[in-house]
Write a structure and sequence with these properties.
This protein has 12 helices and 17 strands. It is α+β, with helices and mostly antiparallel strands and about 425 residues long. It folds into 3 domains: about 110 residues, Sandwich (Immunoglobulin-like); about 180 residues, Rossmann fold (3-Layer(aba) Sandwich), CATH 3.40.50; about 30 residues, no CATH class. A hairpin with a 3-residue loop joins strand 14 and strand 15. It starts with 11 loop residues before the first helix and ends with a helix.
Length: about 425
Protein backbone atom coordinates (compact mmCIF):
# COMPACT_ATOMS: atom_id res chain seq x y z
CA UNK A 1 0.00 0.00 0.00
CA UNK A 2 1.42 3.32 -1.04
CA UNK A 3 1.16 6.15 1.45
CA UNK A 4 1.44 9.58 -0.02
CA UNK A 5 3.09 12.16 2.18
CA UNK A 6 1.35 15.52 1.85
CA UNK A 7 3.60 18.30 0.66
CA UNK A 8 3.52 21.19 3.07
CA UNK A 9 3.34 24.38 1.07
CA UNK A 10 4.71 27.58 2.47
CA UNK A 11 2.16 30.36 2.82
CA UNK A 12 2.33 33.06 0.20
CA UNK A 13 3.06 35.93 2.65
CA UNK A 14 6.15 34.07 3.92
CA UNK A 15 7.38 33.48 0.36
CA UNK A 16 6.78 37.12 -0.51
CA UNK A 17 8.62 38.21 2.62
CA UNK A 18 11.66 36.12 1.70
CA UNK A 19 11.65 37.54 -1.83
CA UNK A 20 11.55 41.08 -0.46
CA UNK A 21 14.51 40.26 1.81
CA UNK A 22 16.56 39.22 -1.22
CA UNK A 23 15.93 42.48 -3.04
CA UNK A 24 18.67 45.09 -2.70
CA UNK A 25 18.10 48.52 -1.22
CA UNK A 26 19.25 51.53 -3.23
CA UNK A 27 21.93 53.61 -1.57
CA UNK A 28 22.00 57.40 -1.56
CA UNK A 29 24.35 57.32 -4.54
CA UNK A 30 22.05 54.92 -6.37
CA UNK A 31 19.02 57.14 -5.78
CA UNK A 32 20.90 60.16 -7.12
CA UNK A 33 21.93 58.26 -10.25
CA UNK A 34 18.34 57.11 -10.79
CA UNK A 35 17.07 60.68 -10.51
CA UNK A 36 19.75 61.86 -12.92
CA UNK A 37 18.84 59.10 -15.40
CA UNK A 38 15.16 60.03 -15.16
CA UNK A 39 15.88 63.72 -15.71
CA UNK A 40 18.13 62.94 -18.68
CA UNK A 41 15.43 60.74 -20.20
CA UNK A 42 12.79 63.44 -19.73
CA UNK A 43 15.08 65.98 -21.33
CA UNK A 44 15.64 63.59 -24.24
CA UNK A 45 11.89 63.34 -24.82
CA UNK A 46 11.72 67.13 -25.17
CA UNK A 47 14.58 67.43 -27.65
CA UNK A 48 13.66 67.98 -31.30
CA UNK A 49 17.11 67.15 -32.63
CA UNK A 50 17.41 63.40 -33.19
CA UNK A 51 21.16 63.40 -32.55
CA UNK A 52 20.89 65.13 -29.18
CA UNK A 53 17.87 62.99 -28.21
CA UNK A 54 19.68 59.77 -29.04
CA UNK A 55 22.75 60.92 -27.12
CA UNK A 56 20.68 61.68 -24.01
CA UNK A 57 18.82 58.37 -24.25
CA UNK A 58 22.14 56.59 -24.56
CA UNK A 59 23.42 58.37 -21.42
CA UNK A 60 20.26 57.48 -19.46
CA UNK A 61 20.50 53.88 -20.64
CA UNK A 62 24.14 53.75 -19.53
CA UNK A 63 23.16 54.81 -16.01
CA UNK A 64 20.41 52.18 -15.97
CA UNK A 65 22.92 49.61 -17.20
CA UNK A 66 25.14 50.41 -14.22
CA UNK A 67 22.25 49.49 -11.94
CA UNK A 68 21.69 46.26 -13.84
CA UNK A 69 25.36 45.35 -13.54
CA UNK A 70 25.26 46.20 -9.82
CA UNK A 71 22.23 43.96 -9.42
CA UNK A 72 24.01 40.94 -10.91
CA UNK A 73 27.51 41.43 -9.49
CA UNK A 74 26.20 42.47 -6.07
CA UNK A 75 24.12 39.31 -5.75
CA UNK A 76 27.06 37.13 -6.80
CA UNK A 77 29.36 38.99 -4.41
CA UNK A 78 27.38 38.28 -1.23
CA UNK A 79 26.09 34.76 -1.77
CA UNK A 80 27.70 31.67 -0.17
CA UNK A 81 29.68 33.63 2.41
CA UNK A 82 29.73 31.76 5.73
CA UNK A 83 29.99 33.78 8.94
CA UNK A 84 30.84 32.43 12.39
CA UNK A 85 31.02 34.38 15.64
CA UNK A 86 33.60 33.83 18.36
CA UNK A 87 33.07 35.46 21.74
CA UNK A 88 34.35 34.75 25.23
CA UNK A 89 31.97 32.81 27.44
CA UNK A 90 31.85 35.51 30.10
CA UNK A 91 31.90 39.29 30.25
CA UNK A 92 31.62 42.02 32.85
CA UNK A 93 28.67 44.35 32.92
CA UNK A 94 29.66 47.73 31.53
CA UNK A 95 33.10 46.58 30.33
CA UNK A 96 34.11 46.34 26.65
CA UNK A 97 33.63 42.93 25.07
CA UNK A 98 35.50 41.89 21.92
CA UNK A 99 33.33 40.04 19.40
CA UNK A 100 35.25 38.26 16.66
CA UNK A 101 33.86 37.12 13.30
CA UNK A 102 35.27 34.82 10.66
CA UNK A 103 34.04 35.25 7.08
CA UNK A 104 34.76 32.20 4.93
CA UNK A 105 34.64 32.06 1.15
CA UNK A 106 35.13 28.31 0.71
CA UNK A 107 32.50 27.40 -1.87
CA UNK A 108 33.27 29.89 -4.62
CA UNK A 109 35.87 30.21 -7.33
CA UNK A 110 36.03 34.01 -7.09
CA UNK A 111 36.62 36.45 -4.26
CA UNK A 112 34.27 38.79 -2.42
CA UNK A 113 34.76 42.54 -2.04
CA UNK A 114 33.53 45.42 0.11
CA UNK A 115 31.61 43.45 2.73
CA UNK A 116 30.19 44.88 5.93
CA UNK A 117 29.22 42.90 9.01
CA UNK A 118 26.93 44.28 11.70
CA UNK A 119 25.79 42.71 14.97
CA UNK A 120 22.12 43.13 15.76
CA UNK A 121 21.59 45.16 18.93
CA UNK A 122 19.00 43.84 21.36
CA UNK A 123 18.52 43.24 25.06
CA UNK A 124 20.62 46.26 26.02
CA UNK A 125 23.59 45.30 23.83
CA UNK A 126 25.48 48.37 22.61
CA UNK A 127 27.92 48.02 19.69
CA UNK A 128 30.55 50.74 19.53
CA UNK A 129 31.28 50.49 15.80
CA UNK A 130 28.63 50.80 13.11
CA UNK A 131 30.01 47.80 11.23
CA UNK A 132 33.12 45.69 10.71
CA UNK A 133 34.52 46.04 7.15
CA UNK A 134 36.08 43.25 5.10
CA UNK A 135 37.65 44.78 2.00
CA UNK A 136 38.54 41.51 0.27
CA UNK A 137 38.04 37.78 0.88
CA UNK A 138 40.00 35.63 -1.59
CA UNK A 139 38.55 32.53 -3.16
CA UNK A 140 38.86 29.52 -0.82
CA UNK A 141 40.02 31.93 1.87
CA UNK A 142 38.76 33.67 4.97
CA UNK A 143 38.99 36.99 6.81
CA UNK A 144 38.66 37.83 10.49
CA UNK A 145 37.06 41.04 11.69
CA UNK A 146 36.13 42.34 15.12
CA UNK A 147 33.55 44.53 16.84
CA UNK A 148 33.42 45.84 20.40
CA UNK A 149 30.26 45.90 22.47
CA UNK A 150 28.95 46.64 25.94
CA UNK A 151 26.52 44.57 27.99
CA UNK A 152 25.14 46.80 30.76
CA UNK A 153 23.12 44.17 32.66
CA UNK A 154 24.25 41.05 34.50
CA UNK A 155 22.80 37.65 33.65
CA UNK A 156 22.82 35.35 30.63
CA UNK A 157 22.89 37.09 27.26
CA UNK A 158 22.39 35.42 23.89
CA UNK A 159 23.70 36.87 20.63
CA UNK A 160 21.11 36.00 18.01
CA UNK A 161 21.94 37.17 14.50
CA UNK A 162 24.24 39.23 12.32
CA UNK A 163 23.70 41.19 9.14
CA UNK A 164 26.09 40.85 6.20
CA UNK A 165 25.81 43.51 3.50
CA UNK A 166 27.66 44.81 0.46
CA UNK A 167 27.24 47.64 -2.05
CA UNK A 168 29.72 46.16 -4.54
CA UNK A 169 30.65 47.16 -7.23
CA UNK A 170 29.50 50.77 -7.74
CA UNK A 171 27.85 51.57 -4.41
CA UNK A 172 24.41 51.96 -5.99
CA UNK A 173 22.60 48.93 -4.56
CA UNK A 174 23.18 47.32 -1.17
CA UNK A 175 22.50 43.62 -0.78
CA UNK A 176 22.10 42.27 2.73
CA UNK A 177 21.37 38.96 4.40
CA UNK A 178 20.82 37.92 8.00
CA UNK A 179 22.92 35.18 9.53
CA UNK A 180 21.39 33.51 12.57
CA UNK A 181 23.91 32.25 15.09
CA UNK A 182 23.30 31.87 18.83
CA UNK A 183 26.19 32.55 21.22
CA UNK A 184 25.62 32.66 24.97
CA UNK A 185 27.62 34.88 27.31
CA UNK A 186 27.42 35.01 31.10
CA UNK A 187 27.55 38.67 32.12
CA UNK A 188 29.15 39.09 35.54
CA UNK A 189 27.84 41.90 37.77
CA UNK A 190 29.74 45.12 38.26
CA UNK A 191 32.25 44.72 41.09
CA UNK A 192 32.41 47.36 43.80
CA UNK A 193 36.06 48.28 44.46
CA UNK A 194 36.76 47.12 48.01
CA UNK A 195 38.74 49.65 50.09
CA UNK A 196 42.11 48.52 51.39
CA UNK A 197 41.01 48.82 55.02
CA UNK A 198 38.14 46.37 54.45
CA UNK A 199 40.31 43.85 52.62
CA UNK A 200 43.02 44.00 55.28
CA UNK A 201 40.45 43.58 58.04
CA UNK A 202 38.97 40.47 56.42
CA UNK A 203 42.46 39.06 55.89
CA UNK A 204 43.56 39.73 59.47
CA UNK A 205 40.46 38.21 61.01
CA UNK A 206 40.73 35.13 58.78
CA UNK A 207 44.33 34.52 59.88
CA UNK A 208 43.44 35.00 63.54
CA UNK A 209 40.44 32.69 63.35
CA UNK A 210 42.37 29.91 61.60
CA UNK A 211 45.22 30.02 64.11
CA UNK A 212 42.98 30.17 67.16
CA UNK A 213 40.79 27.33 65.88
CA UNK A 214 43.75 24.99 65.50
CA UNK A 215 45.24 25.99 68.84
CA UNK A 216 42.07 25.36 70.81
CA UNK A 217 41.69 21.93 69.23
CA UNK A 218 45.28 20.96 70.03
CA UNK A 219 46.33 20.35 66.45
CA UNK A 220 49.65 22.17 66.37
CA UNK A 221 51.83 19.34 65.03
CA UNK A 222 54.09 20.17 62.10
CA UNK A 223 53.85 17.63 59.32
CA UNK A 224 55.63 19.27 56.43
CA UNK A 225 57.16 22.28 54.70
CA UNK A 226 56.01 23.53 51.33
CA UNK A 227 56.40 26.58 49.13
CA UNK A 228 54.53 29.71 50.12
CA UNK A 229 51.41 30.39 48.04
CA UNK A 230 49.59 33.67 47.65
CA UNK A 231 47.07 33.97 50.47
CA UNK A 232 48.95 31.79 52.97
CA UNK A 233 49.50 33.05 56.49
CA UNK A 234 52.91 34.80 56.49
CA UNK A 235 53.27 34.13 60.22
CA UNK A 236 53.95 30.47 59.43
CA UNK A 237 56.90 31.11 57.10
CA UNK A 238 59.89 28.99 58.18
CA UNK A 239 62.72 31.49 57.89
CA UNK A 240 65.73 29.12 58.20
CA UNK A 241 64.46 26.99 55.32
CA UNK A 242 63.55 30.13 53.39
CA UNK A 243 67.10 31.50 53.80
CA UNK A 244 68.64 28.18 52.76
CA UNK A 245 66.50 27.67 49.63
CA UNK A 246 66.15 31.30 48.63
CA UNK A 247 62.35 31.22 48.32
CA UNK A 248 59.58 31.53 50.94
CA UNK A 249 58.76 28.19 52.58
CA UNK A 250 55.75 27.60 54.82
CA UNK A 251 55.21 25.28 57.78
CA UNK A 252 52.19 23.05 57.29
CA UNK A 253 50.40 22.60 60.60
CA UNK A 254 48.00 19.76 61.27
CA UNK A 255 44.43 21.02 61.23
CA UNK A 256 45.11 24.63 60.25
CA UNK A 257 42.22 25.93 58.14
CA UNK A 258 42.94 29.62 57.66
CA UNK A 259 42.20 31.63 54.52
CA UNK A 260 38.84 29.96 53.88
CA UNK A 261 35.72 32.07 53.36
CA UNK A 262 32.08 31.26 52.77
CA UNK A 263 29.94 34.11 51.46
CA UNK A 264 26.26 33.94 52.35
CA UNK A 265 24.24 36.16 50.01
CA UNK A 266 20.85 37.09 51.46
CA UNK A 267 18.61 38.87 48.93
CA UNK A 268 15.35 38.68 50.87
CA UNK A 269 13.31 41.90 50.87
CA UNK A 270 12.96 42.72 54.56
CA UNK A 271 11.31 46.11 53.95
CA UNK A 272 8.78 44.95 51.33
CA UNK A 273 10.31 47.34 48.81
CA UNK A 274 10.96 44.89 45.99
CA UNK A 275 10.35 47.67 43.46
CA UNK A 276 13.73 49.14 44.44
CA UNK A 277 15.89 47.20 42.04
CA UNK A 278 19.01 49.34 42.65
CA UNK A 279 19.20 48.11 46.25
CA UNK A 280 19.50 44.51 45.07
CA UNK A 281 22.07 45.44 42.43
CA UNK A 282 24.18 47.28 45.02
CA UNK A 283 24.15 44.25 47.27
CA UNK A 284 25.23 41.97 44.41
CA UNK A 285 27.87 44.50 43.36
CA UNK A 286 29.25 44.47 46.91
CA UNK A 287 29.30 40.66 46.89
CA UNK A 288 31.15 40.67 43.55
CA UNK A 289 33.70 43.10 44.97
CA UNK A 290 34.30 40.84 47.98
CA UNK A 291 34.74 37.83 45.68
CA UNK A 292 37.23 39.78 43.55
CA UNK A 293 39.21 40.87 46.62
CA UNK A 294 39.34 37.43 48.22
CA UNK A 295 40.30 35.78 44.93
CA UNK A 296 43.02 38.35 44.32
CA UNK A 297 44.50 37.56 47.73
CA UNK A 298 44.50 33.83 47.04
CA UNK A 299 41.83 32.82 49.53
CA UNK A 300 39.55 29.81 49.23
CA UNK A 301 36.00 30.96 48.42
CA UNK A 302 32.64 29.28 48.85
CA UNK A 303 29.16 30.71 48.49
CA UNK A 304 25.56 30.08 49.48
CA UNK A 305 22.51 31.80 48.02
CA UNK A 306 18.78 31.16 48.07
CA UNK A 307 16.86 32.49 45.08
CA UNK A 308 14.14 30.22 43.76
CA UNK A 309 16.24 27.31 45.06
CA UNK A 310 19.11 26.92 47.47
CA UNK A 311 22.53 27.00 45.78
CA UNK A 312 25.84 26.13 47.41
CA UNK A 313 29.41 26.34 46.14
CA UNK A 314 32.17 24.44 47.96
CA UNK A 315 35.23 26.35 49.14
CA UNK A 316 38.16 26.17 46.73
CA UNK A 317 41.01 28.32 45.45
CA UNK A 318 41.67 29.22 41.84
CA UNK A 319 40.00 30.42 38.68
CA UNK A 320 37.27 27.74 38.36
CA UNK A 321 35.65 28.53 41.70
CA UNK A 322 36.01 32.26 41.04
CA UNK A 323 34.09 31.99 37.78
CA UNK A 324 31.52 29.70 39.41
CA UNK A 325 30.94 32.29 42.14
CA UNK A 326 30.59 35.11 39.61
CA UNK A 327 28.14 33.02 37.57
CA UNK A 328 26.09 32.50 40.72
CA UNK A 329 26.06 36.26 41.30
CA UNK A 330 25.14 36.88 37.66
CA UNK A 331 21.99 34.80 38.13
CA UNK A 332 21.17 35.98 41.66
CA UNK A 333 17.66 37.31 42.15
CA UNK A 334 15.36 38.54 44.85
CA UNK A 335 14.70 35.74 47.34
CA UNK A 336 11.26 34.83 48.66
CA UNK A 337 12.79 32.92 51.58
CA UNK A 338 14.25 34.83 54.56
CA UNK A 339 17.71 34.01 55.82
CA UNK A 340 16.32 32.53 59.04
CA UNK A 341 14.97 29.53 57.11
CA UNK A 342 18.20 28.52 55.37
CA UNK A 343 21.00 30.06 57.45
CA UNK A 344 21.65 26.81 59.34
CA UNK A 345 21.99 24.92 56.05
CA UNK A 346 24.47 27.47 54.70
CA UNK A 347 26.54 27.31 57.90
CA UNK A 348 26.50 23.52 57.75
CA UNK A 349 27.80 23.57 54.17
CA UNK A 350 30.79 25.70 55.16
CA UNK A 351 34.16 23.99 55.38
CA UNK A 352 35.68 23.44 58.78
CA UNK A 353 37.31 26.64 59.99
CA UNK A 354 35.77 28.80 57.25
CA UNK A 355 35.14 32.45 58.02
CA UNK A 356 31.53 33.39 57.24
CA UNK A 357 30.67 36.66 55.52
CA UNK A 358 26.96 37.47 55.33
CA UNK A 359 25.95 40.05 52.73
CA UNK A 360 22.42 41.17 53.42
CA UNK A 361 19.85 43.93 53.39
CA UNK A 362 18.90 43.19 57.00
CA UNK A 363 20.52 44.75 60.03
CA UNK A 364 23.51 42.99 61.65
CA UNK A 365 21.48 42.39 64.81
CA UNK A 366 18.79 40.55 62.82
CA UNK A 367 21.34 38.37 61.07
CA UNK A 368 23.08 37.35 64.29
CA UNK A 369 19.77 36.13 65.66
CA UNK A 370 19.62 33.64 62.78
CA UNK A 371 23.12 32.22 63.40
CA UNK A 372 23.24 28.86 65.20
CA UNK A 373 25.18 29.56 68.40
CA UNK A 374 27.68 32.12 69.70
CA UNK A 375 30.67 30.25 68.23
CA UNK A 376 29.27 30.71 64.73
CA UNK A 377 28.52 34.35 65.49
CA UNK A 378 32.14 34.99 66.50
CA UNK A 379 33.45 33.78 63.14
CA UNK A 380 30.84 35.66 61.10
CA UNK A 381 31.23 39.08 59.51
CA UNK A 382 28.00 40.84 58.56
CA UNK A 383 28.13 43.36 55.73
CA UNK A 384 24.73 45.02 55.82
CA UNK A 385 23.39 47.47 53.27
CA UNK A 386 21.77 49.34 56.16
CA UNK A 387 25.13 50.35 57.63
CA UNK A 388 26.25 53.85 56.84
CA UNK A 389 29.70 52.49 56.03
CA UNK A 390 28.32 50.21 53.32
CA UNK A 391 26.14 53.00 51.91
CA UNK A 392 29.18 55.28 51.82
CA UNK A 393 31.08 52.76 49.69
CA UNK A 394 28.70 53.50 46.82
CA UNK A 395 29.04 57.26 47.15
CA UNK A 396 32.77 57.37 47.92
CA UNK A 397 34.59 54.06 47.25
CA UNK A 398 37.84 55.43 48.76
CA UNK A 399 36.30 56.18 52.18
CA UNK A 400 39.22 56.23 54.67
CA UNK A 401 37.50 57.72 57.76
CA UNK A 402 38.48 56.25 61.09
CA UNK A 403 34.83 56.04 62.13
CA UNK A 404 34.12 53.67 59.24
CA UNK A 405 37.03 51.44 60.23
CA UNK A 406 35.99 51.34 63.87
CA UNK A 407 32.36 50.58 63.07
CA UNK A 408 33.22 47.74 60.72
CA UNK A 409 35.79 46.38 63.16
CA UNK A 410 33.06 46.04 65.76
CA UNK A 411 30.88 44.15 63.29
CA UNK A 412 33.70 41.77 62.40
CA UNK A 413 34.76 41.10 65.97
CA UNK A 414 31.33 40.59 67.53
Amino acid sequence: MNIETPVRQRPFPAILKNIVRLLPAPTAVGVIYLIVALLVYLQASREADDGVRNLLIFAASGIAALHAVSLILGWLNIRNINVTRSVRGYARAGSPLAIGFTLRNKRRLFGASALRLREEEHGGLVIRESYAPAAWIPARGERRVQLHGLLPKRGMFTFTEMQLSSAFPFGMLRFSCRVKSASKVCVYPRSLPIPAWLGERLLRVAHHHGESLASTQGEDEIYGIREYRTGDNPRRIHWPTTARLGSPMLLEMEGRQDMIFRLILDTYDYDNQSAKGPELERLISLAAGVVEELHRRGMAIGMSHHGNDYLSLAEERGEPVYHAAMEMLAGAQRSATPLSQWCAQAVGDAARGARLVVLTGASPAQVREFLPGPATSRRTAVLSMRDLDMIALFTNPALPEQSARDTLALLLEE
